[in-house]
Amino acid sequence: MQASRKWVGGRLLLVGMAGACAFGMLAAASVAGAEEAAAAPKVDLQRLLQLPTSLDLEPAVRGSANKAEWRERFDTARSEFADARSTLAKTQQELAEVSGNSSAWQLAAPGIGGVDPGKGTRGNPLDYDLSTRMRRNREEVARAERRLTELDIEANLANVPPDWRGSHTADEAAASQPPE
User: What value does the mean pLDDT of the chain take?
Assistant: First the structure.
């Protein structure tokens, strides 16, 4: 028997034996699809509303620099600060050694003034070169600390995340304490 085709309501209907077989296959396929849909696991609404963890929405550049450049800036500023502090500590150690080896006695002619008993030797440098280096080293520490603070402010204004700010070391804790 041959199937005939008829358009009814905008749909093509197959009439006859072949049409019945085609309809039976479609019905069986839709029943199998319904069983598969019923067997699919149900997903919680909260899970559907969350973005996947593998999706990276963080911008590649913050404040005209990328992650590697920010890390390099912070690492450089921290190393400069640490170098300045270590140089100052060495100069202080040298000055302490010189002051330990010298005597506090200073002679002056009577009536000229000499050493003020209240000041001791603090007003007079024991070694002018070391005192000058000490002053320069203190200025360098202050400059490096200012640079690190300015960089931190710049990063805050650019909304740079903490993990972009380089390796965190004990230098940050030392930055808050003045050198001895």
Answer: 73
CA 161 – CA 155 distance, rounded (Å): 8
- The residues spanned by each domain of the chain are 1-35, 66-102+117-175
Measure the CA–CA gap between 3 and 26, rounded to whole angstroms: 16
Phi, psi angles (nearest 5°) of residue 14: -100, 125
DSSP 61: E
β-partners of residue 65 are: 62
Burial class (CB in 10 A: 0-12, 13-18, 19+), 117: exposed
DSSP state of 3: -
From CA 86, how far away is CA 45, in angstroms rounded? Answer: 57
Over residues 121-148, the mean pLDDT reads: 84
Q: Residue 133 corresponds to which tokens in the numbers above? A: 């280096």
| Tokens describing residue 130 | 């070391």
Which of 101, 94, 80, 100 has its CA nearest to residue 144?
Answer: 80
pLDDT band with cut points at 50, 70 and 90 for residue 134: very high
Distance CA(93)–CA(95), nearest Å, equals: 5
- Greatest mean pLDDT range, 44-53, 66-75, 163-172: 66-75
